[in-house]
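U., I forgot to send this yesterday:
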Amino acid sequence: MNGLIGKKIGMTQIFDATGNVIPVTIVEAGPCLVTQVKTVAKDGYQSAQLGFGSQRRNITNKPLTGHFKKAGIEPVKIIKEFNFAKESVPSLGQEIKVDIFTLGEKVNISGTTKGKGFAGVVKRHGFGGVGDKTHGQSDRERAPGSIGASSYPSRVIKGMRMAGHAGNARETVQGLKIVKIDAENNLLFIAGSVPGPNNGILEIRKAK
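Result:
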């Protein structure tokens, strides 16, 4: 299996064999249940649909209830698709655990970043402001400055970085290293930071 669905637990730090401090993110990776196996013959491509997190039956709609019943599992909250090797085809209802990963392996992690609401250019794009409070300038420290030319092209260029909605977008961080695996508790300790808040849903995929 190429990856798992997980949940961000939080950040901490651990020490390596030489005593160096490594900032890590703790991710609860699985266990995930196989809810559907897609094949080239039937679906046009090959993948496994995994489910993560339990969900009450009384809030699960009828199509999904039938879908889970066919797989022989209880309703799950999150469903996502992952690739798998041709020689290891999973079966319906199979439990996929964190042991598909190995220590030191590189992974790509996707998630939804924290929403920041409406933000100015300093917070949203890292602008430095337009100067100090000198020569009567008292309210322009965080202003964007000029946004376009005058006579030509007489418009604001498409893609101009301006104030607006920041965060709450899908983001993928590539090449993160697994520095510790707690198979008993389905935890991955990943060097560095991953997108999103604590308890945010993540997709952990093996880096190619």
